[in-house]
Queue: 4 jobs
Job 1
Amino acid sequence: MAMNLFGFEIGKKSSAKGEVKAISPIPKQSDEASTTVTSGGGYYGQYVNLSDTDGTSDHELIRKYREASLQPECDAAISDIVDSAIASSEESSPVSLSMIGLQLPDKVKKQIINEFNRVLKLYKFNRNASEYFRNWYIDGKSFFNVIIDPKNPKRGILDIRSVEPTHINKVKEVESKIDPNTNLEYESIVDEYYIYSPDLSSNTADRSSAIKFSNDSIIQVNSGIMDPGRTRTVGHLHKSMKLVNQLRYMEDSLVVYRVSRAPERRIFYIDVGNLPKGKAEEYVQQVVSRYRNKLVYDANTGAISDDRRHMSMLEDFYLPRREGGRGTEISTLAGGENLGQIDDVVFFQRKLYRALNVPTARLEQETSFSVGRASEVSREEVKFQKFIDRLRKKFSFMLLDALRIQLILKGIITEDDWEEIEENINIGFIEDNYFAELKEFEILRERLEMSQMLEDIVGKYISDKYVRTVILKQSEEDIMRLDKEIAEEEANEDIDDEDIDDEDI
């Protein structure tokens, strides 16, 4: 069934004259989640597993990720990751645009900054940043629909709307070609688009409700993690799924053991004399019915009933004893020992935290965390901060992609220009972490102390530039800026001194 394309398309780059297109039998690696179909067949012309019955579809994985995120330990770890990645501030935005090394006129840079601020407003990023990041981290992917005015595209982006990941899927139509020079068979991408349908994740997807979106009208941000076969994109929670289930089963079995072994139970040895087996059992049952009292409270109705027909594992034991024994006797069966040991549960909790790249020290809430000297920072915290930086860099693609579309639509730059400058445009995340602030101050203090220790040999064995670049870690731009500021301050001091001398005269 043919579907009309919904959305917009940015003009494709025109190839330079005489440019040779690269041909290779090795397909281009991509971390985008997509379905590959043969050109001409279309999305619904191919066999595509839309059902989740096998438990391997992308939509089923997202559902499992969301269930795993509800585990208390997993939820606490995710909250630590989100809080560390997205810092909240009432005075400023959680992110800022960095254009270090970008060779563009100041006017164009100012326009880029203005459009970036516009993108943040469209996302409502200051208010929804943590929610965006959390959903992206759990699901492993996020989709956004970019809305423009088709009659006047130069107005730029009018709105950006979040799309439920289970309702959309990217499709790549490819066709096999043979290079006439080398006789190599390779796949060429004919078209790329998105299929959206609220029933896309159900067993019976309604083709009539499916909408075909253009590739440029959808912003996709994924985790960048591929499965071992590199056939699909998985989420950050994928490697922890087994541990979440193991921890859940361990806790459930622990509850069963506590309930069944904790209470003390009694054993009644009832003297049955020389009664035959059948009579002896009947006599024991009579004794049990006589002395056994089992009142049951129904929480739904509030009624109390007598339920003597069923015997649970927590009730007393009644055993017959033949003539010649010690007669009727009552003894106590001790409850289970070592009920307070949960080393196995703690083991799986720690293993879950390690799988999520969260320091295990954060698992014990009562443990104090030192934010003193930088040398006292644990290796786990350093690794965790590097992990957060990687997440931020991947997550920032949702802002950069929207900025690219905005700049191209408004005619500030072209698509070719963006490919030239995108490496010099980065998203910076603010740090309101007290630990990070103290760490920076501690490092600066150590550098200043080292520079003071080298004052006697500056100009003799090492140069002043060496101290500023190697010890103080000042860049060429920092040196020029600081020298200019120092000269201005000295000039102002000279003027003030002259004014004081004139007043004295």
Job 2
Amino acid sequence: MMETLKRKNEELAALLDVSMILNSSFELEKNLLNAMKTLSEHLDMQRGTITLFDRKTGELRIAVAHGLTREQIARGKYRIGEGIVGRVVETGSPMVIPDLGKEPLFLNRTKARIEKDNVSFLCVPITIKDEVLGVLSVDRIFDKMVSVEEDLRVLQIIATLIGQAIKIHSAYETERQKKEELTKELKNRYSLPNIISVSDKMQEVIKTCLKVAKSRANVLLRGESGTGKELIAKALHYESDRSNMPFVALNCAALPETLLEAELFGYEKGAFTGAVGAKPGRFELANKGTIFLDEIGDINLSIQAKLLRVLQEHTFERLGGTKTIHVDVRVVAATNRNLEEMVKAGKFREDLYWRLNVVPIFIPALRDRREDIPPLIEHFLKRFNKEYEKNITINPDALRYLIEYAWPGNVRELENTIERLVVLNESGIIKADELPAYIKDKISIKNYTSEGSLIVEKERLEKERIIEALKKCNFNQSKAARLLGITQRQIGYKIQKYGITSISS
């Protein structure tokens, strides 16, 4: 009676420990190995293996084992239907071999069992619903006092727990891989060298960003609306050591004062009418990553004081809360306002201004870098052609209108204009008479020649850039190539293509 009670207690302890181990982390192999060690400690198991089905190879392979060497584990390979392990996978039913020495199906593939007599072998399928993932098998010394049925029942429960752990880990790995792929895609999309620009002004912006991206320094982006401040902010994040952590953006002008504070710092249940539960703020969500605060000049003095504390001490409390929350967040702020004048007028805190303005970066308006317009048009055409399954091009006259237009809405306005032109175009070619009236009315057609095209315009600008780089480097092609971010072979080809000589102007 006492022995039976002791056995029951060991079984319960084994089940509890295995359950806790399997849920302790996402390190599946480590958790499975520790689970096998626990079985050995509680249930007198000599050896134990977890053999899983590999869909790629169609084989059953030992994933983890207790009581086997690495060489023995490496030999543990089976086909479905082969030996006891393969038979259990094939049938989906458990098998119990009271005495291995008398069982012809036992292959001893691992060569781990020199003496097989008086060794019992229990093998149960690891299943989720109707899918067999593998098998759990154990060796134990044959004991008439121990019920094989009891052992089998415990192993089946543990096999179920293992199956659930494998499925959860598989889902976790799938999501992790998706996240890695997305991060990789975002890193490429928002890579500073990939920002579409040929103008010297934007190249200087990119150079500054590359210098500051790896640092912890706060950045203040200045420039008109639509110049691409959020694009630069994302590029700074994905070029930094924080690229695998969150990038969180918030337009401070888009929310009223009462909501802005809650959005930035979060709130506790009951903090205000409608706060039915706690919610983390943007700073919490951006922990270890980057927060982008657009239109920073639109926040009031009260919130400015709380923001200053976060920048100075890296701490804050949620609305309605008393717990101090610590965060490690890099701040990139942006504004189109004159913060200096606002400081003088007492509308913006001077101490906050200096905290934000560690590295100021001015993004020029599109009208001040017209050479960027042709490559941007090409980029947007390509993107929207793909999105709307079209093949729209633009004729020279229309291109020249777009180059000369002042673009008060900057890159954002250009992007929206190209999308509208692609959507509405039915001929396959964007012509000057299809452009919005507000663009044509601002530009005199007399200023144009009909020569050239998008490609010609691009090549003209590219030639000018190469000549300028060569002059800066005293016509040293290797140095000029590095300056332009291309190979020496590429610059050699382009010099020949454009007929550039040492006296080109």
Job 3
Amino acid sequence: MRTICFYFQVHQPFRFRRYRFFDIGNDHYYYDDFSNESILNKVAQKCYLPTNALMLDLIKKHKGRFKIAYSISGIAMEQFRLYAPEVLESFKKLADTGKVEFLAETYAHSLSSLKGKEEFERQVKAHSALIKEHFGQEPKVFRNTELVYSDEIGAMVAAMGYKAMLTEGAKHVLGWKSPNYLYCNAINPKLKLLLKNFKLSDDIAFRFSNQGWPEYPLTAEKYVDWLNQIPENEEVVNLFMDYETFGEHQWKDTGIFDFLEALPGTVLKNSPFTFSTPSEVARKLQVVSAVNVPHAISWADEERDLTAWLGNELQQEAFDKLYSLGEKVYASNDDALKQDYTYLQISDHFYYMSTKFFSDGEVHSYFNPYNSPYDAFINYMNVLSDFEIRVNAAVRAGVDDQVARLSKIIKEKDEQLEKLEKRLSSKQSPEKAPVAKKPSAAKKAPVAKKASVAKKPATAKKPAAAKKPAAAKKPAAAKKTTAAKKPAASKTTASPRRGQTGKKS
């Protein structure tokens, strides 16, 4: 089996408005609604709608032999519902074909996998539930934000029940190995890995319209020739790219849609390759070996590391500060805070702070609303400062509410105990009623003569208490000489009673 796996990332962030220092503590709304709506509608018209329509036609034209996969962030799904519901409907039509697979990822398109298991799992579960709700699929394959992967992250994904995961076929990881095989996680071999062929992917995503590129112009025939040059024993070519490649990164007048329309037919006609979804690749191919990735990798830049998001002190400070608030956010039990916390985690915010403009300028400046990484940092930290104030206030209020609730519970329990004591008192015999009220020792002296009161504790000072044991016994016992010694015996019995009374108090 020789096959091509096409996967596309779909994501648009919620961008922040210009949030100034004087807004901190005074204005708690952070989002640039105008920019978010206008950008999404622009991309929808240039990319999402026409590309989805073309993909649907290609699936029908080739009678299901053309297959693709998408990873749509929860943030993008929210914006589709808000600003462009027709885009969401077009994805549903693709899902109905049965030839499109939707992958799991983090809901917020976040880097939470780098900060611990709890928040990471929370977002993945939320995203999978959203995919099932809209497309009727329960994701089996996972794609982390920005293709971020390490052995440890892969082990977490495997523990969550996913069968396979997508990541970058980085040179420094693979060495002499080819990305065109199925691999597995080094910690948990049950997790299969599909590695991106970044050269063939970037030929479409980044170099297609570059007139200075020696291979310009790129045609479907030329691309299939490259595929046919791949050694026959290499089984899968994973082509992973942003969906915005079609129509947005590469504009329509570059011929990108013509290329896409011609590619599936040319592949099926002039090569031994078929098309498969990630789940099909993981199910049909055999793993050749494990891949050791002790340090996290990504798709970005020449280094294929995390420096695009966490490569400078600005990014690291913002990142660490944000996740230090997580425990307080969930302790507050405030839905508005939880939502803002989710939006604050969007990886784009940290990407805007990148200082790698000198080497990858155009990539990092794309859709960047800030003039410099320093502007991005200041704006983000202003938002985060206000957010922290709200979180701390909510936690204090939560503690006060909890104390009030506990006080109410204690009061209710006391009232219940009072009622129970009254009920018990009312059920006692009339003879015991005075004893139930616990009169003072002075008042109990005349009562000591009664047989029914003989069992009640009495003070050691009164001689009457010494006669009580004799009263309980047969009259004949009173004539014995030992009866004279019984007052002393009563003292020994009285002292434990005093000790017991002291313990109870």
Job 4
Amino acid sequence: MVDAFDGDVAAATVAQLQAGMETGSLTSVSITQAYLDRIDDVDRAGPSVNSVLMTNPEALDIAAQLDRERQEQGPRGPLHGVPILLKDNIDTGDRMVTSAGSLALASPAGVDATVAARLRQAGCVLLGKTNLSEWANFRSTRSSSGWSGVGGQTKNPHVLNRNPCGSSSGSGAAVAAGLCAGAIGTETDGSIVCPSNANGIVGIKPTLGLVGRTGIVPIAHSQDTAGPMARTVADAAAILTALVGVDPADPITSGDGVQRHPDYTLFCAGGDLAGVRLGVARNYTGFHERADLLLTQALLALAELGAIVVDPAEIPHRGAYDDAEYEVLLYEFKSGLNAYLAGRPELETRTLADLIEFNLAHAETEMPFFRQEIFEKAQEKGDLTEAAYLEALETSKRLAGPDGIDTALQQHGVDALVAITGGPAWPTDPVTGDHFLGGCSSPAAVSGYPHITVPMGTIFGLPVNLSIFGAAFSEPILIRVAHAFEQATRLRAVPRYLPEVDLTQA
């Protein structure tokens, strides 16, 4: 059953857009044009959210071709003709650039990343590229999330002087502002779920191995993945369905034990959670007292849906693997980035060392607010055969996965864990950087397990989300829980584009 469409494309679900195209009241061209107009009105003018770096000059032509194909052959599937934005660290084989927010990379990549190719195959219109935290927030500890040398600062559409979090900042803000039907983000640790939380949308960080990474500017191959960001769980599940599959150039996608489903939207059916056991990861709460109150209300809602809530069900080893994770990221970033740059022959910067020199030579535009100490630390690392790297990788993976999430699930006999995704968005501060209140992304990120975040309310108009995560390839149960909660509560807030927080709105 598709909810009635009120004519507002900016608020429409994927199912509503598809239903409109099936009846002829909408076309892919009309939808694409509506989003392009809204990008002009909201992102570039008006409140100037600054979430979209560029629109695809071929978008309307692609939409027109997809409309003709629908008339002649029928739709390819549920995403046929649907406009999607991509984070600007994802290669596209068109006239759009892939820069990771860096002026050193601001040129077309020439070849589609695997995720871009799969979206095209599904019939999506690749609408444009979104701004991001430059280098996916892996250049400096003083970075301001949502800022890049190419795009400047992305704003939070709920309160414009608040931060959109990162590194998929533009993807999160654009989805919340209704500039696309959905967007693709990437995550190493928190970069899908944190901006989903700050902008009050749904984000899915898939299990490592579900989604191919070829053609994505890397940080760490042991944690990196792309995933969907959308206004509803069903929309995110539909996009996830299009993204999953074997990537011949990414061996992890064809590894033993990879569990894929042909249609993740099937897990959005039904509204009760009878018999589902959910553990409360209390050691991933306490970021803000009002967020804790929202969690209490969320747990009551889950219980009313039939879920058995086990409270507490803490995840062991919080913080114990932070140093090991950072060591892994430094090693893998240098190795992975050098390999990626070698595949971009049009670039003059071919190594991490070249990028460091580029930034020094262009410090006025690339480093006006923060430096590149993470780059410099990564450059000092050796190769991936060194004992320090191998030990850190083993430690972080074990403590986060088998000794962390898996242990919590088993000890408490639960199907999934819930926590607060993070605190409300902080004021953007380019001088001292992010003022992050904390979050729960690390266990799922480091282990490579799935993580879904869904709106659970607001604090003075600033969104806060509920996180649901579990064992490897447990997307079906996580989607089921997230969808049931979403449909029962309907807590997603529509952005108001306030200049500052309205303290009268508690």
